[in-house]
Amino acid sequence: MLYKNILLIDDDHDDAELFLEAVASLNKEISIRWIASPRAAMEELISSEYLPDLIFLDYNMPLINGGELLEKLKSNNRLSSIPVILISTPSEEFMKLKLEQNAIIKYFKKPNSYSELIAILDSIL
């Protein structure tokens, strides 16, 4: 398994709780952390000794959106190699550009059901 240490950055508490529960239900020995604030996530990533193997990044967040945080991650030499999957509803043009630039490895819209979320996560993890 490639991803054992995952970071979720999402300001929506309910969505994050559902995401954490879905990952736990996969029983794949994955450690997942959640940080609600993009600013706090960036500060922690910069100062942390251990980096995640994968970041799930919500796009629609106040103050700093996922696109802005992605730019900051990819412009930091130490953090730029962490694979990022954008979630939520950015424009398709934005997503295509970020995929072409290798800034993200995948994107998906937040699913409407728990079972759909589990299927998506199972295919990635």
From TrEMBL:
Keyword flag Phosphoprotein: yes
Domain Response regulatory positions: 5-125
Record keywords: Phosphoprotein
Coiled coil: none
Signal peptide, first to last residue: none
Biological process annotations from GO: phosphorelay signal transduction system
Classification via PROSITE patterns: RESPONSE_REGULATORY
SMART domains reported for this sequence: REC (SM00448)
4-aspartylphosphate found at: D58
Record's protein name: Response regulator receiver protein
Organism annotation: Flavobacterium johnsoniae (strain ATCC 17061 / DSM 2064 / JCM 8514 / BCRC 14874 / CCUG 350202 / NBRC 14942 / NCIMB 11054 / UW101) (Cytophaga johnsonae)
Higher taxonomy: Bacteria, Pseudomonadati, Bacteroidota, Flavobacteriia, Flavobacteriales
